[in-house]
Design goal:
This protein has 22 helices and 23 strands. With 725 residues, it is α+β, with helices and mostly antiparallel strands. The longest helix has 76 residues.
């Protein structure tokens, strides 16, 4: 009996082993087959991706060649001289990150439309004429091909460095005829494209994280190198990292590139990683190939799970159950993630819909008031009323834009506090001045209590603190119906444990529509508004409370809320601030603007409309201006003018050629002391605290944010005229 049991156990063991081995072998064979099938599919997909990039690149280069041919034809037909042609190209070449050269093919001397008149001559191509090295022969041949118009398909002049920006570039050319004193002469007109611009058209799917793409000639010379393609050319790169001493294989590679339109190659890269390379010709008459590379690891499938499943199924069923439980759990998490993604997409759609409405509403008011004003041009009172309403709508639009920018800066962690002396009396006055007219319009009763403010000055970020208070006051007005009441308290609480600090408590209480408990749990979330008839008819982005919450936390403060539907809302903000002793507020006489007639300013502004607005507003104050369209022109005008011509410079920041920061730094390094110390006031749409600090760091004397606050500008000019700045 025991012998039979032993035989049965042996037979059972052998059967189990056989079943396990068979299961594993079958799973292994199936997995290997599927691995090969999917690898081939991924390879085919990679090839299609490179072919798509080739077509995109070809279309892109064809369009650039079209520009060159059209311009060359126009210049030739109008018998332009070199000077006329360069002026024409400066005007028509609106895409400033492209460049245009005219090359004398006899001497290879060239002229660039990038530089101002008198400075156009460049030596970018002379070096290829003077050098007698083999690597430059294809370069000259390509230029001759373009000049003689023998490129039936298209030819690209590649891999050389621009004199203008020192960036690598490629060129597309066409023959052009110019008028000279001796008659007519043919030149080569080149449209120059920085290679970085071409690279931007190449986008790989996320499946190919290590993939790269470049352009080579059919002999293996680089036109555009990818990041990891080393050596002088592609042939040397492959030889150096695959068969250093076997030049026969190098010649085989060269022959393959020259005799085939496309193909797949398997070599190691400079890291020793096995890679798949795919090349494809741009066309029958083109000497260019696109070259894509991807690590073979990227082409592997994820079928390792098949091996695990086979082993698990053949050895222990329990592990299969565990895997099943794990998969169920994973699916549940995926469903939750999909649901969260759907909710996020829905929230985004709702936000875009709300923003579209909230932006269009004040914009419609601005445009509508302008139209009405045009029709009532003979009625000054009606025009003035339209202008006032248009300004109010414009301020609403500006507030909305500022809210969106603020929340973006907060969420990216880029907001910083710009602390300064703050007069509590002045801040209270400004808040009430801004909010009272709106309350009076809605017939809302307003009560305030500022009696418990023993300290007059604190150190804080005035703009952010006012933004917190104004957002809460504005919300109270928005959601309080006509005839309601708002009560405002601002008072201090002593902090015996923190000497030199005070606790400022801001409390705004309204009798408005109130909020449900459910909404109060998410009211500080971005783009959140309660779904109510009264709320939906009230304009707003849903950003105010989110900004308030995050600003209060940035100041290490606390915000609380008490609210109920139909019973109103009370918000309380508590923040600790340093107290400033012995401070005095500048008197109105000290800061009030005085007459600024006969001042002469230099305004650096690239936008025509902004220049017109600034010039017209200043002209109304008796101030004259000269305009510079960029930072470089601003410096040139300052240098050419006699010392003392300009009492100040109003400097925009974002300008072409040279921005405001760089221009200010160069002015501060001028050798002429009087011109070096010219007052510079930034006048820019960059209005965050860090932007103001950047202007100061660049050597500017002040900052005015756009839209221009004329009172602030006149105050600056007054101080300049008095010699106080």
């Amino acid at each position: 009996m025991k012998e039979k049991d032993r035989k049965r156990k042996v037979i059972l063991l052998v059967c189990n082993i056989f079943l396990i081995v068979t299961t594993i072998a079958a799973t292994w064979a199936y997995s290997s087959h599927m691995d090969q099938v999917q690898k081939e599919a991924k390879t085919a997909e990679f090839v299609r991706t490179i072919e798509t990039m080739k077509q995109v690149s070809r279309n892109y280069l064809d369009s650039e060649r079209g520009y060159a041919k059209n311009w060359a034809s126009y210049i030739t037909e109008h018998h332009m001289t070199m000077e006329d042609a360069l002026d024409f190209l400066r005007e028509i070449n609106t895409n400033k990150d492209r460049y245009v050269h005219i090359v004398d093919m006899d001497t290879y001397e060239a002229y660039s439309a990038f530089y101002p008149k008198g400075e156009e001559k460049i030596d970018t191509y002379v070096q290829y004429k003077e050098k007698n090295i083999e690597a430059d022969v294809p370069f000259g041949e390509i230029m001759e091909s373009m000049f003689n118009e023998t490129d039936e398909d298209f030819t690209v002049l590649g891999k050389y460095r621009l004199q203008e920006t020192h960036a690598m570039a490629v060129g597309i050319g066409a023959r052009v005829t110019l008028a000279t004193e001796a008659g007519e002469k043919a030149y080569l007109l080149l449209r120059i494209i920085p290679t970085d611009n071409l690279k931007k058209t190449w986008v790989f799917p996320t499946d190919y994280a290590s993939a790269e793409v470049g352009i080579i000639t059919n002999t293996g010379d680089y036109v555009i190198q990818s990041a990891s393609m080393k050596s002088q050319n592609f042939r040397e790169y492959i030889r150096g990292y695959n068969f250093q001493d076997d030049y026969t294989k190098v010649e085989e590679l060269k022959k393959k590139l020259q005799t085939t339109d496309n193909g797949l190659l398997e070599y190691k890269n400079f890291r020793g990683t096995d890679c798949l390379w795919y090349y494809s010709s741009f066309g029958e008459n083109s000497a260019l190939d696109i070259l894509g590379m991807v690590s073979t690891e990227q082409l592997k499938t994820t079928l390792d799970a098949w091996y695990i499943i086979g082993i698990v199924c053949g050895i222990l069923i329990i592990l299969a159950v565990i895997d099943g439980v794990y998969l169920i759990s994973m699916n549940r998490r995926l469903r939750e993630a999909a649901k969260a993604s759907e909710q996020a997409s829905k929230a985004k759609t709702q936000f875009l819909s709300a923003m579209s409405h909230d932006i269009r509403t004040p914009l419609n008011a601005v445009l509508g008031m302008m139209t009405i004003a045009e029709k009532k041009a003979d009625d000054p009172e009606a025009v003035r009323e339209c202008m006032d309403k248009g300004k109010h709508a414009g301020r609403q639009l500006l507030t909305l834009i500022n809210d969106v920018l603020d929340i973006s800066k907060i969420e990216s962690g880029m907001v910083t506090l710009n602390e300064e002396q703050v007069s509590l009396d002045e801040m209270i006055h400004d808040l009430t001045e801004m909010i009272l007219p709106v309350m009076e319009q809605k017939e809302i009763r307003f009560a305030s209590d500022f009696s418990r403010l023993p300290d007059k000055y604190i150190r804080a970020d005035k703009m952010r603190l006012s933004q917190i208070y104004m957002n809460l006051l504005t919300n109270a007005v928005k959601y309080t119906e006509k005839g309601g009441q708002i009560r405002l308290q601002l008072y201090e609480e002593a902090l015996p444990e923190r000497v030199g600090y005070t606790r400022l408590v801001f409390c705004v209480e309204d009798t408005g529509i109130g909020m449900t408990e459910e909404f109060q749990t998410q009211m500080y979330s971005t783009f959140t508004r309660e779904v109510k008839t009264q709320v939906n008819t009230t304009q707003g982005s849903g950003l105010g409370l989110s900004i308030v919450k995050q600003m209060v936390e940035l100041m290490n403060g606390e915000i609380t809320c008490e609210s109920a539907p139909g019973k109103g809302t009370t918000f309380t903000v508590t923040v600790d601030f340093p107290v400033l002793e012995g401070c005095k507020k500048d008197s109105e006489e000290q800061i009030a603007p005085e007459a600024v007639e006969n001042m002469h300013l230099l305004v650096a502004e690239d936008n025509e409309l902004n220049w017109e607005i600034a010039c017209e507003m200043l002209a109304g104050q008796g101030v004259t201006c000269d305009r510079a369209e960029n930072g470089r022109e601003c410096i040139d005008m300052l240098l050419k003018a006699p010392a003392g011509t300009y009492q100040a410079i109003l400097m925009d920041i974002q300008m072409p050629v040279m921005n405001g920061y760089e221009a200010a730094r160069k002015i501060r390094r001028l050798s002429d002391e009087k011109k070096r110390n010219t007052i510079i006031i930034a006048m820019t749409a960059d209005a965050f605290a860090e932007d103001v600090q950047a202007c100061t760091d660049a050597g500017m004397n002040g900052h005015i944010a756009k839209p221009i606050d004329m009172k602030k500008l006149i105050a600056y000019l007054t101080r300049i005229k008095r010699g106080q700045l």
